[in-house]
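hi! just following up on the protien thing from before. the input was this:
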Amino acid sequence: MNKQHTETSKFLSYVLRHEPHAIGLTLDREGWADIASLIAGTKQSGRELDEILIRAVVAGNDKARFAISEDGLRIRAVQGHSTESVALTYTEKMPPKFLYHGTATRFLNSIREQGLLPGTRHYVHLSEDEQTATAVGQRYGKPIVLKIEALRMHQQGLKFFQAENGVWLTDKVPVIFINLHL
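and the predicted 3d structure came back as:
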């Protein structure tokens, strides 16, 4: 991904996940925004964005962070929202035996006390592989991978969902289901 695509991806994440009002954008309950309104709001904020660039960023994003609607008129972030106006509905799904969560070592004391909580997001994000979890953890400092007993959680009534890009989502992960995976 070139520098322009990376910067555009970060900008889209910011407005489609966290601060749509920063450019006067409105998201529906499923997180969809009108692409024409996104472009217009972006222009008013002093940035240049067009439909070709948006589609290139969506198609080229290796983490599939964004989706364009079937009619091609709307865009959304597929997960990671912190704005209260968005409440994506996901279909409940049975998880694999284990899932992984990447974090920084500096958060371990809090995790040992409280488990994994969504923080400002709507859900805790988990991945099916250690490599992805490690990459996520590196964004926050010295990484560590936590091994989550997802199937056992599910069997005890905790719900799991999977976003369009494969990221697993759950409301919280109690301490008893967390193993340090070294």
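The first helix runs from residue 3 to 18.
The radius of gyration is 17 Å.
cheers
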